[in-house]
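Folding follows sequence. Below is one example:
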Amino acid sequence: MPDPIELDPVEELATGAVGEPGHRAFYIQARGDSGRLTVLVEKEQVALLATEAVAFLDRIADQYPERPITLPSSAAELREPTVPLFRARLIGLGFDPERELVLIELRERSSEDEDEDEDVAIGEATGDEAERDEDEEGYVARLYATRPQVRAMAARGAEAVAGGRPLCPLCDMPMDPAGHRCPRWN
């Protein structure tokens, strides 16, 4: 298993999409003293992270009041190159109250992936197979960011998701510029 990647704290935290609507790739990106990390994510993960991060920050604000610092969403734009280290399957949020930093944890593998592997891998592992099983745990990245950085990232993520193809008013499926075959018209 690769060592966990920790950017503590991040200097920049970004999310967004690269490509034309309908053919975009979504990323989460962070930069800290120890380097820059780019992780490939799904559009739905960016949308959910944007809404859940704001709700999470609003929930903890009662117990841990925020300073009135805001960052524009443009502070959370992706920087080139966008070459991902891994694809995140699981994203988690946490909060360190002593340092007042938000933890965003990105995992390449989820426990569901491990359960599927256990179902497939029947029998004893030989030496090579045992080493491969350890390597299959995947990457884990922990990003520690300020609440304004997380709010800016959430706003930028929501903008990126909204910048996609418009949805059909009848079937809620994305419509291509060349046309849309709506299943509701059949």
